[in-house]
Amino acid sequence: MCACIVSSERDIRSITPRLFTLPARAFAAMVGTVARTTSAETKGFGYSIYYTLVNIGGAVGPILALQVRENLGISYVLVMSSITSLILVAAAYSIYAF
To answer: How confident is the model at residue 70 (pLDDT cuts 50, 70, 90)?
Structure first.
């Protein structure tokens, strides 16, 4: 029984640093995408749009999450996040697919 606890602690220790680096990896991928899809003349404009959207999401997201948590419950915050992410992926696909 004690060996199971130790092995699960090892698993947690090996997974936790990877989870904390996921946002940094996603950020690097987005910055790389902006760099590849803009020209030298429009690169600054592309980065400003990207960071503006990041800041808007950082300001509006917690407010929406609080409203959803108070009205529907904490489990629906994750549902809202998933639906929002799906909408954003669909929007990006529709823009870049055509």
So the answer is: very high
| 9 has pLDDT over 60 | no
pTM of the model: 0.54
Q: Could you give the number of structural domains in the chain?
A: 2
Reference 34, options 42, 24, 87; nearest CA is: 42
Average pLDDT, the chain: 76
Residue 27 tokens read as 């950020």
Residues 49 and 88 in one domain: yes
Say yes or no: 7 and 29 in one domain.
yes
pLDDT score for 54: 81
For 93, the domain range is 40-98
Say which residues have a Cβ less than 8 Å from residue 31's Cβ, sequence separation at least 6: 47, 50
Q: Is residue 80 within 8 Å of 68, Cβ to Cβ?
A: yes
Alpha-carbon distance of 15 to 9, in angstroms, equals: 10
* Alpha-carbon span 19 to 21, nearest angstrom: 5
